[in-house]
Amino acid sequence: NAGVTQTPKFQVLKTGQSMTLQCAQDMNHNSMYWYRQDPGMGLRLIYYSASEGTTDKGEVPNGYNVSRLNKREFSLRLESAAPSQTSVYFCASILQGARGQPQHFGDGTRLSIL
Amino acid sequence: DAKTTQPTSMDCAEGRAANLPCNHSTISGNEYVYWYRQIHSQGPQYIIHGLKNNETNEMASLIITEDRKSSTLILPHATLRDTAVYYCIVRVTTDSWGKLQFGAGTQVVVTP
């Protein structure tokens, strides 16, 4: 009963490097999300995927790209990492359309960019 | 989605009930009230949600006022592990976006 799994849990990058954060859910959810949380702040939506094959920008999409690989997996890519992207990244999923269903979150990826 | 107002912080004694208030005076008829919590360095954890009626599960109870403009999350017997930031969120579940709007939440500290 894994729920939402994120990899890696920790990562340190140098400015300009690229990397992909992975997220997978095993709850047969149709919608998936990427949030970032800066110290002492609430979560901000980066990108979301309402269903397999679709992706849309959230509040803070600049500097990121996403891929909804299949129903289970939703990845977040930083093409050229910047120190301002140092944050904790959370992936979430939900059975969209079903009344009252909550979003489920992974445990996060802690990313530091030097 | 309607905005919510929560106290910045609360202290609670271990073993006592913790009552966390939330105001959502602009809530619409089709918006649910959700509660999440975030224990330090972990992902947000779903606690409970409701539309009109009071709800109870193994973690907590949710009391929603008749006019739905406010609600209270009740942790019946707080433990040290309940120390966390608690978020009250209102949203429509069937919208195409599905984004959760997290505010600052209430920092709850449970003390021995």
User: What is the tally of helical segments of chain A?
Assistant: 0
Q: Would you count the extended β strands of chain A for me?
A: 11
Number of strands of chain B: 9
pLDDT under 50 segments of chain B (min length 5)?
none
The rounded distance between the terminal residues' Cα atoms of chain A is: 36 Å
- How helical, in percent, are the residues of chain B? under 10%
How many strands, what sense, and barrel or not for the largest sheet of chain B?
A: 5 strands, mixed
- Morphology of chain A: globular
Sheet-strand content of chain A, in percent, reads: over 45%
Helices and strands of chain A, in order, run as EEEEEEEEEEE
Q: Can you describe this structure?
A:
The complex is a heterodimer of chains A (114) and B (112). Chain A has no helices and 11 strands. Chain A has strands at 4-7, 10-13, 19-25, 31-37, 43-49, 56-57, 64-68, 74-78, 87-94, 104-105, 109-113. Chain A is globular. The mean pLDDT of chain A is 91. Chain B has 112 residues and is an all-beta fold. In chain B, 0% of the residues lie in helices and 45% in strands. In chain B, the strands form 2 sheets. In chain B, strands 1-9-8-3-4 form a 5-stranded mixed β-sheet, with no helix packed on it. In chain B, strands 2-7-6-5 form a 4-stranded antiparallel β-sheet, with no helix packed on it. Chain B is globular. The N and C termini of chain B lie far apart (37 Å). Classes of the chains: A mainly beta (114), B mainly beta (112). The A-B interface holds A 4, 31, 33, 42-43, 45, 48, 50, 56, 58, 88, 90, 92, 94, 96-108, 110 and B 32, 34, 36, 41-46, 49, 51, 87, 93-94, 96-100, 102-105.
